[in-house]
Amino acid sequence: MKKSRWAAASAILRSTLAIPSSSCSLSPPHPSIGGWLKVQPMQMGRFEMGVQSFPFLKPDKEGPVKTIPLHVNGRATRVTVDDPDMPLLYTLRDNLGLHGPRFGCGLGQCGSCTVHIDGEAVRSCITPLSAVGKKKIVTLEGLGAPDKLHALQKAFITEQAAQCGYCINGMIMEAAAFLAHNQNPSEAQIKRALAHNLCRCGTHLRIVRAVKRAAAGV
Ligand code: FES
Ligand code: FES
Q1: Is the CATH number 3.30.70.3300 carried by domain 151-216?
Q2: d(CA 157, CA 179)
Q3: What is the whole-number distance in angstroms between the Cα of residue 111 and the centre of ligand 1?
Q4: CA 20 to 30 Å from 194, out of 91, 109, 169, 214?
Q5: Alpha-carbon Rg of the chain, whole angstroms?
Q6: Ligand 2 cavity residues, CB under 6 Å
Q7: Ligand 1 neighbourhood includes 198 CB (under 6 angstroms)
Q8: Terminus-to-terminus CA distance in the chain, angstroms?
């Protein structure tokens, strides 16, 4: 089976950092939100590094190839992966060709990889495939269709809320989950809901306007 991008990226990172596999451990082993590879203190050239954590660096061993059933965007599907602990993001993009969710930080910190799992906004870069089970996944592609856009997609276009657009998947998916619970939010509540989604282009004012517009059904 072709090596997953996760395996390839992990191998590059491990060799770049010269991390000996003996100093790595997965912790916690099967969390619902993610696994973190803890690397014990090590010397890198002149620098002494403390304990480092890398989300979902693939352990340096071959896992069993497995076929996993998933429910994505209203359809049942199956994916064959070389490690069921692979982050969901890689599966969506590389196995299923869904490129709405983006790889930003890979650390659960920027929000660009956000998808919905059973209606909740989740960071797919730190969610292991094995934690999804029978839950329903929705990506940006499943939120609306080109001929039937979701209110947020329409509002983001009307407000021209994207510059480079990299963060917009996360902004829309986070906002959609938020609006499902709060249909009449104040500006302060919208800002709080999106506070952990990062936009390097600084289009925050337009993004907030777009979410207000969608909430108002304009
Ligand atoms: S890529 Fe997932 S939070 Fe940044
Ligand atoms: S529009 Fe470029 S990162 Fe947000």
Answers
A1: no
A2: 18
A3: 5
A4: 91
A5: 19
A6: 162-167, 199-201, 203
A7: no
A8: 49
| Domain residue extents for the chain | 5-55, 66-142, 151-216
**Which of ligand 1's atoms lies nearest the C-alpha of 102?**
1
pLDDT category of residue 118 using cuts at 50, 70 and 90? very high
Q: What CA–CA distance (Å, rounded) separates 81 from 97? A: 14
Share of the chain above pLDDT 70, in %: 76
Ligand 2: centre distance to CA 135 (Å): 30
Percent of the chain scored above 90 by pLDDT?
Answer: 58
Instruction: Say if 66-142 and 151-216 have the same CATH topology.
Output: no
Looking at the CA of 166, name the nearest ligand. 2
Residue whose CA lies nearest to ligand 1 atom number 3: 108
Q: Residue 7: which residues within 8 A CB-CB, separation 6 or more?
A: 58, 82, 83
Asked if residue 87 has its Cβ within 6 Å of ligand 1, the reply is no
Q: pLDDT tens digits for 162-202?
A: 999 999 999 999 999 999 999 999 999 999 999 999 999 99
Homologous superfamily (CATH) of 66-142 is Beta-grasp domain (3.10.20.30)
Assign 99 to helix, strand or coil: coil
The residue behind tokens 């596999």 is 21
pTM over 0.85: no
How does DSSP assign 152-165, residue by residue?
HHHHHHHTT--SS-
Element (H, E) at 5: helix 5-16
